[in-house]
Amino acid sequence: MKHFLFLPILLINIVTVQAQKLAYERADYYSKALSGYQLAGSNGSYTIQGVKYSFAFPEASFRITFYNQMAALATYYSTGNKEMLVLVDSIDMAKVKGITYHKVGDEVVDVRLHLKGSAPAFFREILDGKEISRTKVDVVHSYVKKGPALSEFVTTLYKLCFEMQVAQGLITQAEADAQNRDRNITPETFITRYPNSIFNMEAKQLIEARARAAGNNRNN
Length: 220
Known about the structure:
There is one protein chain. The chain is an alpha+beta fold. The chain has one domain. The protein is built from 5 helices and 10 strands; from the N terminus they run H-E-E-E-E-E-E-E-E-E-E-H-H-H-H. The strands form 2 sheets. Strands 1, 2, 3, 4, 5, 8 and 9 form a 7-stranded antiparallel beta sheet that branches. Strands 6-7-10 form a 3-stranded antiparallel beta sheet. Strand 1 and strand 2 form a beta hairpin. The radius of gyration is 18 Å and the shape is globular. The protein starts with 23 loop residues before the first helix and ends with a helix. Residues 1-19 have low confidence and may be disordered. This is DUF4369 domain-containing protein.
């Protein structure tokens, strides 16, 4: 029987946090680490409804602002001769309710951060240095090429979410440790044991993928 892990996620060790805020050093660490993984998985392309899009990340693509503990994600998108900067800011990583993965073509995965409805982020499109749109969103998309950087990126996102939750008192250190320790159990058992876990969206994706595979086998 397949066990829980949709992607080859590494063991997540949560650093004990005692303050109500993520320490500056930790915010800086996550900003640099996540930016580095995105840069390593940069310069990919995908096609949606016949239109080819290319994406790339600036050197500091992911940033956590210490004073308000909010994250921001910057991505360059281009299609044809048009290039646009997309900036998603005011992302409350403590309010991420799950992460899912969606294949976009053969080499790119759309990593989606699902936010609680009470904590939307702002999606801004910037063209030629001018903001042309601003929208509230509860799903943040980050396109990353398949490879080692992808699993490192997602693992580090989970680590950051847990640290932020512990720092804000939304979950205890013991609860975070227990969820990470039990990630080797089946997804069905995990969801039953931890009904409010940030891992559950990933677990449900695995259950659905397994059901589709079983259905395809029956039809063959």
